[in-house]
Amino acid sequence: MKIQRRFCGIAAVLIAVAALGPAAARAQPAATERITGEDGRYSIDMPKGYTSTTSPRPDGGTMRQRSYIWKDSVGQYNAVDFAIIDPPAGSTKHIDPWEAQRQLQARYPNSALGQSREIQLGAAKGMSFAITVNGPRGQGLHVIAFKIYVLEGRIYELIAETRLEDRDDPTVVAFMNALRIIR
After folding, report:
1. Does 23 reside within a domain?
2. Reported pTM
3. What's the total number of domains in the chain?
């Protein structure tokens, strides 16, 4: 009798797992590779297959950006972006993380600020915040999560753009915690 109950319990679990299908298995984060800044000031684990661009800024500084895009379980796109923004040579301008938050949020009219808090990574101070926006072409609500760090005039930006349902995607969670600022 005891063996029969145990078998029935195992069978019930197997049936429940089969009924849930892919939802029962937690997705794994994308495979990553470690990137170290050419000046040795940072490292980050980026998903393999990322693209990279470098562009001059209007103020004379430079922005280096790495982006990774993938489709979620319903075929919509998610993205993570890492940007390093260097000031012009000789600049002594103070960068206020709160002002950086306001400027980034201003890029998305009609967005709603979901959370905002001060953060620190080693000597770098910054902001962590998320905004909710209406997705393009009626695709529902999207979340854009930001982490901004400032150190010695350099800005480090981590951005994850997902559907509301994908905000805890393992690739997003791993990416948003992958930066190491060395000096």
Report:
1. no
2. 0.80
3. 1
